[in-house]
Write a structure and sequence with these properties.
The chain is of the alpha+beta class. Among the domains are: about 125-320, Neutral endopeptidase , domain2 (Neutral endopeptidase, domain 2), CATH 1.10.1380; about 370-420 and about 475-660, Collagenase (Catalytic Domain), CATH 3.40.390.10. Helices cover about 50% and strands about 5% of the residues. Helix 9 crosses helix 13 (about 300-315), helix 17 packs across helix 22 (about 575-595) and helix 20 crosses helix 22. The protein starts with 12 loop residues before the first strand and ends in an 18-residue tail after the last helix. Pfam families: Peptidase_M13, Peptidase_M13_N.
Length: about 675
């Protein structure tokens, strides 16, 4: 699992930030959908609705030392990890009665938990990989070795994607990659903090080389080599904002054209080694990157390229190795980049790895024990209600022409709803898990997934496939699948409580559903049609109107400060900000329709309308370490939780009315934005 990649292999847009899943051991009862003790009623909701909704929660919930942030979804993830730990410890017991699925997850967990064996092995598991690199005798052999390092983020990413122009087919794809820092901007920004982080990174790389046995002087020179090569690759990479335009990533070509573009890398040798010797065509997301990579291969010496490969090998496996390598890896990626004070306990990390490598095997046990059919039915009911609200919204738009409306409705009606878990579970029978072989299990699991992706190429798309595992506390929309996906893990209290008062349920999970639905029509999603093809179905005039309305949102969020003088990059967060606003508008419409004719009474001194908005506000309760704020400002397409709350409600007249806010109040945007 490479740390922090930018890839177009997964265009799906998730509700939540996938930075650091939070797992602090807890057996506490889940919080209710609306918790008045989490509020701070001394704050005027018309001045700062986030603090009004969450001030009490933040005081009660300091960030745990092994976390970079802590929020309501983190606590849900925490509770899920405890459940998963119970499943895995039972499955890993030597005398457990197990089927083929529970045996695999149990044996993996036992191997990962065997700290004594992992410590005794030291860096020995890297020996075969290091020997392969050491034996390279010419640059022509780099491609063959890179093909054995499929998840080490070496040079570029390679995988399979839906064809942008024919979403029913899967094609091969190559994308930018090859970096050890979270994003290309980390190599190129010249502010003091970026310069400092680059120095810290070089020092970390040097220490890792020393832990492999290199002398300090040699390791220092090797670290500089890594930085020089990666900086060149970064310069050839697209920015995250540029990558928000899918048309900019659509470059289908023959393998012969790719070879002509970058002759220094022997693509045919690479394709043959990964089992695709007759690959005819593929999508090359960033041709400029491939050209930059080609120039670097020609420019740098063979010895320097071997240094680069050695670094990415140890970097890719460090979390699974002995304490010296593990702790140094954490010191930079956990402490320096994210501000974590402590490494997560091993059981938490091992639970994450099982979910990452064997997620649908673990998911079967999780769903059986913790996800009821009743929850699935109620969630699906809410989804359909919010889809009906969107249909009404589209029909009532004053700025969109009938021709574009018709196409929008076709897309809406073609959207698939996936709730809980897949209809067909993934088959892991070909994945060998050996009890006691942690690094070997990791390597085989990565190869299994790579082979699974390769096997899709040239075949019809499996539209029943999921991009998240059932226990995941998150949700997403995939524009090429045109589906919204809600894993069982996110359909738990407090985000979704089937027994809750309807108002906060619609504000929280209803807002989430509306968020994912709106992603189909944000600045990126709107470029795909009902089948998932990259196709322009808008009239030119409607497109101009959309851009103008969307610019209102990006301009608004670009005024918000994240930390110090760093402001939100409104163009990067535009899709998520649009989805947050559109989603809550749709959820409000659906809630009103669902409760039409009912006499709704105040509760806890709060009107039903106020409870709806507080339910939404409390879905974002949380706080983040300063280091992670800086990281997210660069790489995260989501705005900070405070602005996901205040930015949205300030655009809704329904909020102003619910809390009797006067014109000119901070939570009343004088230039209200609205797309959907």
């Amino acid at each position: 699992m490479a740390w922090f990649r930018t890839s177009f292999f997964a265009l799906a847009v998730a509700l939540l930030l996938p930075l650091a899943y939070a797992q602090q051991s807890s057996t506490a009862k889940p919080e209710p959908a609306l918790d008045v003790t989490s509020m701070d009623r001394s704050v005027d909701p018309c001045v700062d609705f986030f603090t009004y909704s969450c001030g009490g929660w933040i005081k009660k919930n300091p960030i745990p030392p092994d976390q970079s942030s802590w929020d309501t979804y983190s606590k849900m993830e925490d509770e899920n990890r405890v459940r998963l730990r119970g499943i895995l410890e039972a499955a890993s017991a030597p005398d457990a009665s197990r089927n083929a699925v529970t045996k695999k997850i149990g044996d993996y967990y036992a191997s990962c938990s065997d700290e004594k064996a992992i410590e005794a092995n030291g860096a020995e598991p890297l020996k075969p990989g290091l020997e392969r690199i050491d034996k390279i005798s010419s640059k022509a052999e780099i491609a063959g070795v890179a093909a054995t390092m499929i998840d080490d983020n070496v040079l570029f990413e390679f995988g399979s994607i839906q064809d942008f122009r024919d979403a029913n087919q899967v094609i091969a794809a190559a994308d930018q990659g090859g970096l050890g820092l979270p994003d290309r901007d980390y190599y190129l920004k010249d502010d003091a903090k970026s310069v400092e982080l680059r120095k810290d990174y070089v020092a970390h790389v040097q220490k890792m080389f020393e832990l492999l046995g290199d002398k300090p002087e040699a390791a220092a020179a090797e670290a500089q080599t890594v930085m020089r090569i990666e900086t060149a690759l970064a310069k050839g990479s697209m920015t995250r904002v540029e990558r928000r335009d899918p048309k900019a990533l659509d470059h289908k070509m023959t393998s012969a054209e790719l070879e002509k573009m970058s002759p220094e890398f022997l693509w045919q040798a690479y394709f043959t080694k990964i089992g695709m010797p007759s690959l005819g065509s593929l999508n090359v997301a960033v041709p400029a990157f491939v050209k930059a990579m080609n120039e670097e291969i020609a420019k740098e010496s063979l010895a320097d390229w071997k240094t680069y490969l050695r670094w990415h090998l140890v970097h890719a496996y460090a979390p699974h190795l002995s304490s010296a390598l593990l702790n140094e890896n954490f010191a930079f990626y956990g402490k320096t980049l994210q501000g974590q004070q402590e490494l997560k306990p091993r059981w938490k990390r091992c639970t994450e790895y099982v979910d990452g490598y064997l997620g649908e095997a673990l998911g079967q046990a999780y769903v059986e024990k913790y996800f009821s059919g009743d929850a699935k039915e109620k969630a699906l009911k809410m989804v359909k209600e919010i889809q009906a609200a969107m249909e009404q919204d589209i029909n009532n738009l004053t700025w969109m022409s009938p021709a574009t409306k018709q196409q929008a409705l076709v897309k809406l009606h073609g959207m698939a709803n996936k709730i809980g878990y897949p209809d067909k579970w993934r088959d892991y029978s070909k994945l060998e898990i050996v009890r006691g072989d942690e690094v070997g299990n990791v390597e085989r699991a990565r190869q299994f997934e790579f082979n699974r992706q390769m096997a899709k190429i040239g075949k019809p798309v499996d539209r029943g496939e999921w991009d998240m595992t059932p226990p995941t506390v998150n949700a997403y929309y995939n524009p090429q699948m045109n589906d919204i996906n809600f894993p069982a893990g996110v359909l738990q209290p407090p985000a979704f409580d089937p027994n809750s008062d309807a108002a906060p349920n619609y504000g929280d999970t209803g807002g989430t559903i509306g968020h994912e639905l709106t992603h189909g029509f944000d600045d990126e999603g709107r470029q795909f049609d009902a089948q998932g093809n990259l196709r322009d179905w808008w009239t030119a005039d409607d497109e101009k109107k959309f851009v103008k309305r969307a610019s209102c949102i990006s301009d608004q969020y670009s005024t918000y400060t994240i930390i110090d003088d760093i402001k939100i990059n409104g163009k990067l967060t535009l899709g998520e900000d649009t989805a947050d606003l559109g989603g809550l508008i749709l959820a409000y419409m659906a809630w009103q329709e669902d409760t039409k004719g009912q006499k709704l009474e105040p509760m806890e001194g709060l009107t039903p309308e106020q409870r709806f908005f507080i339910g939404y506000g409390q879905s974002w309760c949380g706080q983040t370490r300063d280091e992670t704020k800086r990281l997210r400002a660069t790489v995260d397409p989501h705005s900070p939780e405070k602005y996901r709350t205040n930015g949205v409600v300030s655009n809704m007249p329904e909020f102003q009315e619910a809390f009797h806010c006067k014109a000119g109040a901070p939570m009343v945007n004088q230039n209200r934005c609205r797309v959907w």
